[in-house]
Amino acid sequence: MNVRVSATGFSRFGKRPESLVELLAEAGGQALERLGRKAVDHLFVGAMAAGPLAGVESLTARVADRLGLVDPASGYRVEAASASGAAVFHAAVAAVESGQAERALVLAGEKMTGLPTPEVTRVLARSLAPSEEAVGATMPALAAIIALRYLDRFSLSAAVLDRVTVQFRESAQRNPIAQFPTAVRIEEVASSRPVALPLRLLHCAAISDGAVAVVVERGNGPVKVLGMGEGFDALAVVDRPELTSFRATRVAAQRAYEMARLTRKEVEVVELHDAFAPFALIDLEDLGFMGAGEAAAWFENGWTRPEGRLPVNPSGGILGRGHPVGASGLAGIASIADQLSGSAGPLALPRPPRTGLAQSIGGMASHNFVTILGRSEGG
Amino acid sequence: MSAPPPLELRRCAQCHSLFLPRPGVCLRCGGADVSPAAVDPIGTVLAATQVEYPPTGFSSPHRLVLVELPESVRLLAMVAGELPAPGSMVQLRQEGDRVLAEAAGP
After folding, report:
1. Inter-chain contact A136–B62, Cβ cutoff 8 Å?
2. Any A CB within 8 A of B76 CB
């Protein structure tokens, strides 16, 4: 693989008055500025539900027009539910690696706060299986059932979920684009209002607007793409042999580690998909960092903190940063790239990492992605 | 008392998996030979949650259970009445595309 990440850009996440196209242009303009306004020849856009949530289609042409990209040789939109941002990055890297594209601008975003919450809930639930939609399942409801199975299997109390939120919200305080720049105490998480017990409000991703940009191009540079993998699973959670681990992550991770020719032992920072606090535990175990049921102890011992043995979500993750669904996968990748290139600013880790991994979950973990980036020695 | 009506599921002739009626091939093995199968509707609650913010079209409180039936078949069902405890027995019935659960008699 001979592809590098040469620039990143983030819009501020949260409730934003701007349109989806404006948010994408905000992040894209920032990345192009950091690139020194060099020309890009391809434009890729990721979004989950631009039509239903933001009332806009033909995103790629609109963003090209808005950014004054006069004549990209090609471009298109990529969708993989809440992993759209990771999917569009993988598509762009493949285009560059194949020689089709020289330098590609990759954008991902979502505009969600324009609709009432029940309507947003219904749109997001469209990524579930028809049999789940038929009984009125929602993303939080299924995540709650998965959490109950996980806590029961490993004899854990719901307090482990509170610790996950507390850590990520603490990190988000240092992230200038985060939707939630304030820390929360464990009692606040434990007494926040129930969404679908054991999940409470502060265990669940917020409804957010926001966008992220990354530029990928051929050749050597400080941040190289080392490995990428995807995995699928049965759409309906009841059709899976187990609920306390996500096959789609395990397969994606195995493929990414093989492509990168490295193991989890070489990974020094992780940005994972924590749309619900229990997912952070499951994700770490699926990525191979510890055995099944052991991730809770890592959070309890502080090993996942920025100064810990494996920093997890130093950006604040989805729980701290906010969750414009289409943007989140690319936000993780861009945050890892910033750590590796030394441009993470206030989020920079005490020990600068050489290798980082981003993981993204599509739908209820039916289509997941893993991306491994590395710092070029002498790059 | 007469026995409750069985659930109408589908069985794959190749790998014998059971699943809810759906278009397409068997999820487990891709087998195309899928035929109707009647299954006893009494199962054990594996997990239960009350959904405080149900999607448009569902009333509050909305309660969901994950139920395990014989042969390791798992189904997600809406609950009529109180939220059953994990480990308790429920009786399932189908109503169109929906699966509903109620406490099974002693």
Report:
1. yes
2. yes
Q: Which amino acid appears at position A216 of this protein?
A: V
Whether A234 and B46 lie within 8 Å, measured CB to CB:
no
Q: Note whether B37 contacts A: Cβ–Cβ < 8 A.
A: no
Question: What six digits make up the tokens of B9?
Answer: 């599921």
- ipTM surpasses 0.90: yes
CA nearest to B52 within chain A: A195
Structure tokens at A298: 């890592």
Chain B partners of A125 at a C-beta cutoff of 8 Å?
55
Phi, psi of A113 (to 5 degrees): -85, 5
pLDDT by residue, tens only, chain A of 379 residues = 899 999 999 999 999 999 999 999 999 999 999 999 899 999 999 999 999 999 999 999 999 999 999 889 899 999 999 999 999 999 999 999 999 999 999 999 999 999 998 889 889 988 899 999 999 999 999 999 999 999 999 999 999 999 999 999 999 999 999 999 999 999 999 999 999 999 999 999 999 999 999 999 998 889 999 999 999 999 999 999 899 999 999 999 999 999 999 999 999 999 999 999 999 999 999 999 999 999 999 999 999 999 999 999 999 999 999 999 999 999 999 999 999 999 999 999 999 999 999 999 999 999 999 999 999 875 4
Nearest to A115 by CA among B55, B14, B39, B91: B55
**What whole-number distance in Å separates Cα of residue A168 and Cα of residue A316?**
4
Name the residue among B27, B49, B78 with its Cβ closest to that of A196. Answer: B49
SS (H, E, C) A24-54: HHHHHHHHHHHCCCCCCCEEEEECCCHHHHH
Q: Look at A135 and B47 and tell me if their CB atoms are within 8 Å.
A: no
Q: Mutating which of A193, A233, A238 best tests the B interface, going by the most B Cβ atoms within 10 A?
A: A238
Between the alpha carbon of residue A270 and those of residues A134, A258, A314, B39, the distances in Å are: 36, 17, 8, 45
Report yes or no: B22 at the A interface, CB cutoff 8 Å. yes
Give the count of Cβ contacts less than 8 A between chain A and B.
92
- For A351-371, letters b (16+ CB in 10 Å) and e give eebbbbbbbbbbbbbbbbbbb
Distances (CA, A) of B92 to A133, B38, B89: 17, 13, 10
Interface residue A201 vs chain B (CB under 8 A) = no
Residue of A nearest to B26 (CA): A239
Per the CB < 8 A criterion, the answer to whether A23 and A206 are in contact is no
- Model confidence, pTM: 0.97
